[in-house]
Amino acid sequence: MRVLGDELPYARWLLLKLRDRRTDSPTFRYYMREAGRLLAIMSSAELEWTKESVTTPLGVQTEELNLAAPPLLVGVLGAALPLLEGFSEVYPQAPVGLVAARRLEDRDGVKVELYYRRLPRVHEGVAVVLDPMLATGRTLDRVISEVKSLGSGKVIVGSVIASKQGLSFILSRHPDVSIYTLAVDPELNTSFFIVPGLGDAGDRGLGVSPP
Ligand SMILES: O=P(O)(O)OC[C@H]1O[C@H](OP(=O)(O)OP(=O)(O)O)[C@H](O)[C@@H]1O
Ligand SMILES: O=c1cc[nH]c(=O)[nH]1
């Protein structure tokens, strides 16, 4: 697991903007896209690359790297949309899958209902699941299982803020996934929101609250 805020001041600056209650929706969306780009770049060593020969304007050949196979990007609607957009700007050739999940809160905690799924029938390569908030981890657990059922050989998770307890839950259920996040926050409140967190990532990123 990598916590990019522990490695890069730039990640902490993105978090400053995203956490700030005064950040308006278009600005929030912009910084979420930037977080997506950062996650794409920082997780690039997890992807498969091949050496490719290139001739420079000096007529000299050298070798660089090209993606061997683009990963399948899976966004969890709706908060992940700007994050997915930023990630896919870095790998425009990557196919995009979408799922939507609803958190149902009750006295025992959070249950998750997957109510929309637009994924390929089979995907055996690398898959990247993108969701900015990893709170209880119940949503991500469902989505990772769904992606694994496609045949994915390797699953990477790109998140912006993960709670300590959500991370432990995911790592206990899926010890094989690689998790990239900008921050790990200490707790959840009684509505299972991350504290200090950044509020409702879907409402803030999309500019509307569902009824
Ligand atoms: O770790 P969990 O406890 O499962 O919570 C995380 C989920 O909550 C958020 O979505 P939300 O339910 O707010 O939906 P939205 O994106 O449509 O606003 C977030 O984008 C995750 O999908
Ligand atoms: O803190 C949280 C938890 C779930 N969903 C959000 O948007 N924020």
Give your account of this protein's structure.
The chain has one domain: 3-Layer(aba) Sandwich (Rossmann fold). The chain is built from six helices and 14 strands. A hairpin with a 2-residue loop joins strand 5 and strand 6 (109-118). The longest helix has 18 residues, at 25-42. The chain has helices spanning 9-19, 25-42, 81-90, 138-148, 164-173, 201-206; strands at residues 2-3, 49-55, 61-67, 72-77, 96-106, 109-118, 126-130, 133-134, 154-158, 161-163, 178-181, 183-185, 187-188, 194-195. The protein has a seven-stranded mixed sheet with strand order 1-11-9-7-4-5-6, sandwiched between helices. It has a three-stranded parallel sheet with strand order 8-10-12. 38% of the residues are buried. The structure holds 1-O-pyrophosphono-5-O-phosphono-alpha-D-ribofuranose (PRP) and uracil. The site of 1-O-pyrophosphono-5-O-phosphono-alpha-D-ribofuranose has 22 residues, from strand 5, strand 6, strand 8, helix 4 and helix 6. This is Probable uracil phosphoribosyltransferase. Residues 10-204 form the Phosphoribosyltransferase domain. InterPro entries: PRTase-like, PRTase_dom.
